[in-house]
Design brief:
The chain has 222 residues and is an alpha/beta fold. It has nine helices and six strands, in the order ααβββαααβαβαααβ. It has a six-stranded mixed sheet, with helices on both faces.
Length: 222
């Protein structure tokens, strides 16, 4: 089995001992980094990154000064993806190289806990892209708001509907306002807002350590 496969297997299984600096720290003190990608495909083996956005947050507050967004150039076919994210071939041609965007992201691998809505797909694409660039994928701690949503629904003895775990549906359950969709930065900010709503529901006092999220299977180390 390849090293890449083992990394993805650990992510799915939620395995890996958390670094001490994260495991014992109350979640309100943890610096989070919400990340979103727009892709050419939902097939992780074929997908190319078209844009990436991220934003930092801590203590239930989004750090607006940290907002980052880059369009990525690629020669891959866009297929029908422009109808979803609105990026046209002219936008892509003027984009940055994926290596420059990911190198900036890697600078935050040890300083922040990364947050995704559906980490399996986005992290798989990031890992595969780094591998193709001969850049070692980092070990990062991850929170998946999709998995946290499924845990909270199941805990309430609710059988999740087919669309119950979409970002929009999850936000609606917390009465969060409608957010622009399918722009990487907008979705990253929407994910961060959702995370803070979920965490305040999970632990209103904000005193539980990050490691308490193990029970939800939303916390993992990749």
């Amino acid at each position: 089995m390849t090293a890449l496969f083992h990394r993805l297997l650990r992510l799915v299984a939620g395995q890996g001992k958390l670094p001490g600096k994260w495991a014992s720290k109350p979640w309100k003190e943890v610096p989070f980094l919400a990340i979103d990608l727009e892709l050419t495909s939902l097939d992780a083996k074929q997908a190319q990154i078209l844009s990436i956005g991220w934003v930092e947050g801590v203590n239930s507050q989004i750090q607006l000064h940290s907002c980052h967004y880059q369009v990525i150039t690629t020669k891959a076919s866009l297929n029908q993806s422009p109808t979803i994210h609105g990026l046209l071939q002219t936008d892509i041609q003027q984009g940055d190289k994926v290596a420059s965007a990911l190198k900036l992201l890697l600078e935050k691998a040890q300083t922040h806990v990364w947050v995704f809505h559906c980490a399996d797909l986005d992290l798989a694409v990031i890992t595969q892209t780094l591998t193709k660039l001969n850049i070692a994928p980092p070990e990062v701690v991850i929170v998946d708001t999709l998995r946290l949503a499924l845990y909270q629904l199941t805990k309430r003895h609710s059988i999740p509907a087919p669309n119950a775990a979409t970002l929009a549906s999850c936000r609606q359950r917390f009465d969060l306002p409608l957010a622009p969709a399918h722009n990487a930065l907008d979705d990253a900010m929407a994910t961060m807002e959702l995370l803070f709503a979920q965490l305040n529901d999970f632990d209103p006092q904000g005193k539980e350590p990050l490691s308490a999220l193990r029970i939800t299977k939303a916390l993992s180390k990749a």
